[in-house]
């Protein structure tokens, strides 16, 4: 492990909470693929599968900021454990409803309960911020490590989900993910030494969403999330159309693998230049690289698509690391978990929209044409942030420069005064 990452784990307790964090985050890469595969298997509709997952993610986008606010106010352990228990109940109910082939509305109701899932990645980043607030280099490495951990979980999660759903029974991925989530949160919250103190006093600062530059940034995350949501649904449908449904997880894992490797390399180097400019470059790179899966899908070759996704994933982690750095810089003090959860909420809302749009595109246009959705979403994110950046520069250029006030006139010397 490179030195910047080895130094992260010097404080006591950091290894333990990271292990719990990884166990709890692995299901985040399992739930989407598991839900899509088991619903499509039992009900024979990718549109229904995309709509159910979209509903759960949309509910999470609404509930997650309030859960994060409770975490900031009452502490991670007191809030995350009961919230996780409710989310696990929702996942198990969803698996039961699918198993019994219950009416479609029960799937939406059960999956909505998973909105209570706490933002484990945000809580982990808050711990690093608490430990390394005065060390920008280590904090940059910690943020990059967290993004690489996200990608690792999304790399392994789909593989595990696909193997469980196809090798055991369709609901196995969801049930296993729910149990791992509960175990990981219990281990994570048990590490009290690294937990940031709660801000139990009255909150005087405004919502992080009202901080300068936060609302446009969350909007960009919304468009970026649509890339991930649509890519997942379309890739599962594409592999299924080729008669290789079990290969969908490993294919999606390659995209996460490219992102994980890029994130570790990105974090090992000190960032250069303004963060806004780096974010713009990352978005441009992601948009350009996402054209590769679209082209590869037209060949009908799953191995070629897998290679294209591996390359396309290179831009994902640097984009997310830089974006999350901007969020941390713009979030008011004492609201860090809420601020980062708002960014994740934007991502989840985008994933929900992307899942629904991807499912509809597959149903009406076919899986190959469905890869137009992530490309369009990435281009929209780039256009949004470009517009915001241009407007911000224009406002700064028009703002009159403040000149120091003129010094008050000095009293005349005694010889110059009138007699």
From TrEMBL:
This protein's UniProt keywords: Membrane, Transmembrane, Transmembrane helix
Protein name listed in UniProt: MFS transporter
Transmembrane portions of the chain: 20-39, 46-68, 80-98, 214-239, 245-267, 279-298, 304-327, 339-359, 371-392
Residue ranges, annotated region (Disordered): 396-419
One Pfam match: MFS_1
Feature: compositional bias, Pro residues: 402-411
Species: Streptomyces solicavernae
């Amino acid at each position: 492990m490179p030195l910047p990452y080895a130094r992260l784990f010097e404080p006591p307790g950091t290894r333990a909470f990271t292990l719990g964090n990884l166990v709890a985050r692995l299901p985040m890469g399992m739930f989407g693929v598991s839900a899509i595969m088991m619903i499509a298997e039992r009900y024979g509709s990718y549109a229904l599968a995309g709509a159910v997952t979209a509903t759960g993610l949309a509910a999470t986008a609404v509930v997650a900021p309030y859960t994060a606010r409770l975490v900031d106010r009452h502490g991670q352990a007191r809030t995350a454990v009961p919230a996780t228990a409710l989310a696990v109940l929702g996942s198990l109910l969803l698996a039961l409803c699918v198993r019994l082939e219950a009416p479609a509305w029960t799937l939406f109701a059960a999956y909505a309960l998973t909105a209570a899932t706490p933002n484990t990645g945000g809580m982990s980043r808050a711990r690093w911020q608490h430990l390394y607030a005065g060390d920008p280099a280590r904090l940059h490495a910690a943020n990059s490590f967290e993004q690489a951990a996200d990608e690792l979980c999304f790399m392994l999660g789909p593989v595990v989900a696909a193997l469980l759903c196809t090798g055991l029974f369709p609901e196995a991925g969801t049930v296993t993910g729910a149990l791992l989530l509960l175990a990981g949160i219990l281990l994570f919250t048990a590490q009290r030494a690294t937990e940031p103190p709660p801000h139990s006093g009255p909150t005087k600062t405004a919502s992080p969403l009202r901080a300068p530059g936060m609302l446009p940034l969350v909007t960009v995350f919304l468009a970026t999330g649509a890339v991930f949501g649509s890519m997942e649904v379309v890739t599962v449908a594409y592999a299924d159309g080729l008669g290789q449904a079990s290969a969908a997880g490993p294919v999606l894992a390659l995209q996460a693998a490219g992102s994980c490797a890029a994130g570790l390399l990105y974090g090992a180097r000190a960032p250069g230049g303004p963060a806004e400019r780096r974010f713009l470059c990352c978005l441009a790179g992601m948009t350009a690289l996402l054209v590769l899966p679209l082209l590869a899908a037209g060949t009908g070759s799953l191995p070629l698509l897998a290679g294209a996704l591996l390359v396309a994933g290179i831009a994902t982690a640097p984009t997310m690391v830089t974006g999350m750095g901007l969020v941390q810089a713009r979030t008011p003090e004492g609201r860090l978990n809420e601020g980062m959860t708002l960014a994740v909420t934007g991502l989840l809302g985008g994933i929900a929209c992307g899942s629904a749009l991807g499912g509809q595109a597959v149903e009406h246009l076919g899986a190959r044409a469905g890869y137009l959705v992530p490309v369009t979403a990435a281009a929209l994110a780039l256009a949004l942030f470009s517009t915001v950046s241009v407007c911000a520069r224009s406002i700064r250029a028009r703002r009159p420069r403040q000149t120091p006030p003129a010094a008050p006139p000095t009293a005349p010397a005694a010889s110059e005064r009138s007699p």
